[in-house]
Design brief:
five-stranded antiparallel beta sheet, alpha+beta, 117 residues
């Protein structure tokens, strides 16, 4: 996803969290006294059987990035989120984005030990 498109998605997600009413809707899940809901459609990075999705989540008026593996339980057709994933606040997400060049270099070195940046 391009940086501009991603920033536009985050802006829309932030607006959605601010404008969201306290009333329950079919797209909203509740855990204890917390307001938890998905913002928009997830981005599917890989397909079944081990699907990976990136989605925006609104929780207590804040926006998070949820990167999670989804599985299709035996006998079912719809994927369900697994416990394997990471839930990042926007500050953590920005920090990862700032470090992508360093991460790419480390990955390249791990794949090819002769790699010289």
């Amino acid at each position: 996803m391009s940086g501009l498109l991603f920033r536009a998605s985050l802006s829309a997600a932030r607006r959605s969290v601010r404008c969201c009413s306290q009333s329950a809707s079919s797209s909203m899940l509740h855990k204890s006294n917390s307001e938890f809901h998905r913002l928009g459609e997830p981005i599917v990075l890989s397909k079944q059987p081990r699907e990976v999705r990136v989605s925006f989540v609104g929780l207590n008026g804040r926006v998070y990035v949820d990167i999670r593996r989804y599985i299709v339980p035996e006998g079912e057709t719809e994927p369900h989120p697994s416990g394997k994933g990471i839930f990042l606040n926007l500050e953590q997400w920005e920090k990862i984005k700032e470090q992508t060049d360093d991460i790419d270099k480390l990955l390249q070195k791990a794949v090819d030990p002769t790699y010289q940046p």
